[in-house]
Design goal:
By secondary structure, the chain is α/β, with parallel strands linked by helices. The protein is built from twelve helices and six strands. Strands 1, 2, 3, 4, 5 and 6 form a six-stranded mixed sheet that branches. Strand 4, helix 10 and strand 5 form a beta-alpha-beta unit. The two termini are 45 Å apart. The structure holds iron/sulfur cluster. The site of iron/sulfur cluster has 14 residues, from helix 6 and helix 12.
Length: 318
Amino acid sequence: MNVCFAKVLGKAERENVTDVAVQENMLDSLVKFATELDGLPMNVLIAKEVVTKLLNLKKLIQRRAKMITITTGEITLSPTQINMFMRCQYQWYLRYVEGLKIPPKPDMVVGSSFHKAMERNFQNKMETQEDLPVDEVLDVYSETFEERLEEVEDKPEDKILGELKDSGYKITKEYRENKAPEIQPLEVETYIEAHIGEGVKLHGYADIITTDLKVIDLKTVKRKPQNNQIDYGYQLQLETYAIHNDLKGAEIHYAIQTKNPQILVLSHPLPATNQRIKTIAKQVAEAIRSGNFLPNGLGHSWACNYCGYKEKGLCPYS
Ligand code: SF4
């Protein structure tokens, strides 16, 4: 088979090889071509090697394209991204440059199902001023739990899974019966964004903004926060929401999955200016633009132990 790869390419592609998008198209054509070669007995080994090399090259180009976008365009950061970056820059790189997603853990399924149930309740309440019946809220929790469980790769045994689902069920019931009636939502799952200068945009979704202009974020946790203080990462989250809104207060509602479920409300005094979150976000953006991602999770006592990339063998440092 005496075919030159270049002939597979169009003229425009051959002339614009410096353009990243063109390079990607070009590689797609070459991979297709080489895959076809794979079917021919004389060329099997060579074709397989060519396909592997081309696919590796494609990944390199995609990574480069992502870095070009990051370093030349506006950087959009959420509080989750900022917290991840501060925990471990290399973890952020794997997630947002390499695009590697780690499937959720069963605990996260409890959290997102609780959120979904409350979102449905408060969306209804915005219209009717009434909470949904408890059974209806619990049905949303159970249905969402079963749906999201599909995404979990390593499921625990049925008994443990049952206990986990039950703990989320109890906390959802507790919140709906004893906390939700006090809350009158103005907005639910509000998208917030703010261009803060130096090519940085902050964005995020606020769980609930109340009619008295308080932002509430819901968290499911296994135990009470230390010293009854809002974790630093959650403080930044609340301060991000406060950038865009004329908010009068900010609270984290901890739904604590202890044997007897508890709800703990902690307030965060919003700073008079938004300087802290803006400064941190700009510094994170500057570090990202340097293109040098340190594995600083290694410097924490716990970060690597809870890192999905370590578990999957995707971090070369751990
Ligand atoms: S294993 Fe540790 S060093 Fe590696 S990405 Fe995760 S947190 Fe960072």
